[in-house]
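Dear colleague,

As promised, here are the two records you asked about, laid out in our usual form so they can be pasted straight into your sheet.

NAME FIELD: protein one
SEQUENCE, THEN STRUCTURE:
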Amino acid sequence: MNDRIYTAAVIIIGNEILSGRTQDTNLRDIALSLARRGIRIGEARVIADVEASIVAAVNELRVRHDYVITTGGLGPTHDDITVPAIAKAFGLPLVEDPTLAALIRSRVATPEVLAVRLRMALVPQGTSLIENDVTLPGLCVGNVYVLAGIPHVMRAMLATLETRLVGGAIVHARSVTAFTGESAIAKQLTEVQVRHPSVDIGSYPFVRDGRVGTTLVVRGTEIPLLEEVIAQLEVMLVAAGVQPTRE
């Protein structure tokens, strides 16, 4: 098992996300996909279609994480500026990729449309492609992976990408739920966490059928330890006078 912790940052690019017009689902899909590869999302940002913002975010995050994944801004219109911004972040010139250009020419017959679409064949020098069976490939520049913003297209690119990425130990989770407020078990919960620093214990309150409850989620790489900690939490909840239920 590779015990090194691999991390990724996600940059969601799009004015439509920030305005509330479009609800992002890509972060969820990326997080679930990378978790299966033993890669943890360390940061996620939503930023506008502004070149300076994209450049700053990419340059900051690519030196802090093993992988950076961006979504959005790959189309042919004036506001699709992700690729030029990535090129600027790396200090690379834009060049026409022959594979992309050939794909575009094979799919577009109208000269006027072709002229616009060929803009999408301009990529940072040295870019590799992320093939998929839905549309034009995504792009890879260094440790930055540039994916589409449209969810079903992004997922097609992600399916190819996840086979390329190297990860470490996979994080597993176990959970237990009880109808009790967080404050009633906060002290005891802290004590369990202190005894087991190698796992992460999260507390998530909810209201169900008018009753206040809390779900405790334990995350870690060692399944036997997770089972041990969950058992301790169950004992803790029973001692607090509530009946725990595993989920």
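NAME FIELD: protein two
SEQUENCE, THEN STRUCTURE:
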Amino acid sequence: MDTQTQKFKIRLGLFIAGGLALFVFAIFIIGKQKHLFNPVFKLTASFHSISGLQVGNNIRFSGITVGTVDNIRIINDSTVKVDMLVDKDVQRFIRSDCEAAIGSSGLIGDKLLIISQGSTDAPVIKEGQQLESSEPVELDAIMANLQITTEQLAEIMVNLNSGNGTLGRLINDSSIANNFSQTILNIKTSSKGFSENMDAAKHNFLLKGYFNKKAKAEAQKKQDAEDKKAAEQKKKNADEKKAAKQKANDEKK
């Protein structure tokens, strides 16, 4: 009887010791994740809406978790103040012109607070300083706008398929399409006829002199341009030759 009681006490003691060790280990892990054992400093930011942010959510800077949300309180009907606890080691990297924004880890993940990078010439942020904030974009508003756009596209497709509107009639009405094709054909025929008329006019006795004079004027213009280019090149060669001669004389002296 005494032996069984002694074994029971030993088992009970081992169970309690194991439970305490597991409890301490869990507290250590949770505290490390929530930065409870690291030196921290406080920051604040104000928002019109925190979009589901909660106490204990992570704070990220440059993509790294550097703290947690310590407190959230309503200041008035349009302002919500968020208190942050940030690792002391990170303070020297956070500038006074950094901004706080509310984001999420993934498309539908937990909310988190994101501190943007500031400019290198701005002073380092101080204990208890308030960061500028940018308001979050509500997912509900995005979905509502997307739904409206989808409905508008669907309405346009229905109108096209039913032949409503100018574009719908053009697509679905074969007579309009045939008229459009005939118009293009007429334009091509007119262009061809115009070219033929111009060729005939060039060989006409009365207009032949005009076209010959025009052709001579164009040829003369082209020749003048070539002569001008040749004269410029000749002058350039003469200047180079003169400069070379002057250089040779200077070297002899």
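A couple of things worth noting about protein two: The two ends are 131 Å apart (CA to CA). The helical segments are 2-33, 139-162, 165-172, 174-202, 205-252.

Best,
R.
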